[in-house]
Specification:
The protein is of the alpha/beta class. 31% of the residues lie in helices and 25% in strands. It is built from nine helices and eleven strands. The strands form two sheets. It has a six-stranded mixed beta sheet. The protein has a five-stranded mixed beta sheet with strand order 1-4-3-2-11, sandwiched between helices. Helix 7 links the parallel strand 8 and strand 9.
Length: 261
């Protein structure tokens, strides 16, 4: 199987044209016409994930986050990014990322979290100019209102959240839920405008927690926790399109953030 065939399957679901201007999605290391035999899925390219790929005989790693996000000026092992790229090249491992294009794809990242929360009547929170259902975040409805604190506990259990930061619990029950995987502080106003009772996202800043206007609970569920579903999305895409190709989910893809509670 050539890398271009695997990329085509991913990009049919999440076209590269949907990625943000600052992003670096697509084939990051390697050549599109290279033949590969086994693929490893992870959230990030780390030295641990590279070691896993080598041990498992994987010659392609597909991640959510691109390992090269800013231009590299040198390769001298001074940073984990440089070491990962060096090791990938040394072992003949190609690196591909589906990042903001997977975030904003119809039925992409936030949609998957919404389904995991059993939300109904979902719609895009911030539609993309590309149309066709693309955009960032979703808002949907629980089948019935749930106690706010109980719902947040369910989120913690369902997504393995070690510590959930949240703003004032301004309503006793929640039913309309807004979600944006990854860093979603920029969509607080959209979640408010959608009438959400609670907005689940990550990487919220101190001042963000003051922007609820007394109408909505803000909850930071963690960046990794909100985006771990990328592995399952990519697995579903590739296993359906390329059923005979060997695909492995990383067991060493881990959260770089640790919690003391």
């Amino acid at each position: 199987m050539k890398i271009r065939d695997i990329a085509a399957a991913i990009e049919e679901f999440a076209p590269l044209g949907l990625q943000e201007s600052y992003d670096n999605a697509g084939l990051v290391v390697g050549r599109a016409d290279t033949e590969v035999h086994k693929l490893l899925l992870a959230v990030d390219v780390t030295e641990e994930v590279i070691e896993e790929a080598v041990a498992e005989g994987c010659d392609l790693i597909v991640t959510h986050h691109p390992v090269i996000f800013h231009p590299l000026k040198r390769l001298n092992s001074a940073s984990y990014t440089e070491r990962c790229v060096e090791q990938a090249i040394r072992h003949g491992i190609a690196l591909y990322a589906a990042h903001t294009n997977l975030d904003s794809a119809p039925e992409g990242m936030s949609w998957r979290v919404g389904h995991m929360l059993s939300l109904g009547a979902m719609r895009v929170l911030e539609p993309s100019a590309a149309g066709g259902g693309a955009g960032f975040g979703v808002v949907g409805e629980l089948s019935q209102a749930q106690p706010s604190r109980g719902f947040m506990r369910q989120v913690m259990e369902r997504f393995g959240v070690g510590a959930l930061r949240h703003g004032d619990v301004v309503c006793d029950e929640v039913r309309r839920v807004a979600v944006c995987t990854g860093a979603g502080g920029s969509l607080i106003d959209e979640a408010l405008a959608a009438g959400a009772d609670i907005y689940l996202t990550s990487d919220l800043r101190y001042n963000d927690f003051m922007r609820h206007e007394g109408r909505m609970i803000l909850a930071d569920m963690g960046h990794f926790e909100s985006e771990y579903c990328a592995i399952d999305i990519l697995f579903d895409i590739l296993s359906k399109k390329l059923p005979i190709f060997a695909i492995r989910k990383s067991v060493r893809s881990r959260n770089p953030v640790n919690y003391m509670v």
